[in-house]
Amino acid sequence: MSRIVIVGAGVGGLAAAVRLQALGHRVTVFEKSDTVGGKLGVLEHDGFVFDTGPSLVTMPQVLEELFADTGPPLSDSLTLRRLPIAARYRFPDGAQLDMPGDITEIPAALDAALGRGRGAQWSQFLTRAERIWDVTHQPFLESPISMRDMLVGAVLRPADVAALAPWRTLRALGRHCFDDPRLVMLLDRYATYTGSDPRHAPGALAAVPWAEQRWGSWYVEGGLGMIAVALRDRLVALGGTLALGCEVTEISTRADGHVDGVVAADGSRHRADIVVANADAAQVYGRLIRTTPARRAARALRRTTPSLSGFVLLLAVDDPPAGQPHHQILFPSDYDAEFDAVFGRGGAPRPVDDPTVYICAADDPAVVPGAGTAAWFVLVNAPRHDPGGGTDWDTEGLADHYADRILQIMAERGVDVRNRIRHRIVLTPAELSRRTLTPGGSIYGTSSNGPRAAFLRPANASDVPGLYLVGGSSHPGGGLPLVMLSARIVADLIGPS
């Protein structure tokens, strides 16, 4: 029986802990916060319950598999509800699309909202996206293998490479497939699922909308934070140990460079045969461990482009407007200007003056204090917190001023709740950075900007012997399903006790 320490109780760390405990290891999870979930955070205020991180479940089979592999089925712990409308999109010309949650209904909805023939174009695109999914999901998303291994090891056939077209960006793919700029804009948005710029992110990200539409969009009753609670309960039921309010300040090593445990903020040492880090890779290699391989990894990460961050409004709304969908996206007139601002093109990274606005308005009595109220999560893409070279989100007055600007934009685009707000809570990239120890609040660690960037994330098996990485900043990437796949890869690499 190996002693395994997991640093961080985010979804990746908890999922890895559950799998490893079920495999017979003795697992202890250290978490600096007093709650579990990491970026899958929850904030409660005056009877309102807000998810402060992910607000959408895709590929629910990954979550179901995690529970089935480690004990009783998911349905014993959580109730998932499929959304009939995946999202409402409002385009700059005022056109509105209610994207069905059923993939078979999407072509007709596109034709009705955007004009005849748009559904056929999207269907043709999805056929190509499915091919990309078929090529990548097993050897890449579900394995520790890298794109270099796929190419050098001849895992990919010439026809596979042609389907992936790694030289083509997501924006270029959209322009190749669509003659309607609104469809290009719709596809562009999926680059933000990895914190990236569609003009630089690889076309392989086309697999993301295919997977989302193939398996649907889902909500967890009580809020997505319940996923972390269910994983915590599963870990405890299996006999694992969870130490909350215990920050790890160092991953220690033996003389031969192999990890041998962790050091907590109070100076206590905890021995381990294996350490799994569910922390941002830049923090792991730049702060927690001090070995030559770690320094090399830290240098490599400094050469990458950090992912974008997010500026969040949590709105306690009285008498919310009728007919609001669960998810709503309000596009700007100039999407390129948004990415220029966030990634610092044409100047330093800066708040977007006219951003895309994402609204999550869950219809769930469990997250509000009573009838006639709603808990809204509002998100816009934002540059990370970087006082030295970009945006200092702690600048006095900036957060409140920008929050007012977002509410004004919502009103201009048809969703005015300014006179209905009981409470407004603002979370900036600076606050995200402090809450999750993520440098600058970069949600996904590194972006996928560049033809190979999506395949060059830090590996799950570190070059530091005995150290593994799990979570959104490591392979295969961010988002709930990929983070849980990351945990499965780590558990498979370590193996049973």
From TrEMBL:
GO biological process, one term: carotenoid biosynthetic process
Matches recorded under Pfam families: Amino_oxidase
Residue ranges constituting the Amine oxidase domain according to the UniProt record: 12-494
Keywords: Carotenoid biosynthesis, Oxidoreductase
Transmembrane segments: none
InterPro entries named among the record's database cross-references: Amino_oxidase, Carotenoid/retinoid_OxRdtase, FAD/NAD-bd_sf
GO molecular function: oxidoreductase activity
Pathway(s) it belongs to: Carotenoid biosynthesis
Recorded superkingdom: Bacteria
The family this protein is said to belong to: Belongs to the carotenoid/retinoid oxidoreductase family.
Protein name (database record): Putative phytoene dehydrogenase
Native source species: Gordonia rhizosphera NBRC 16068
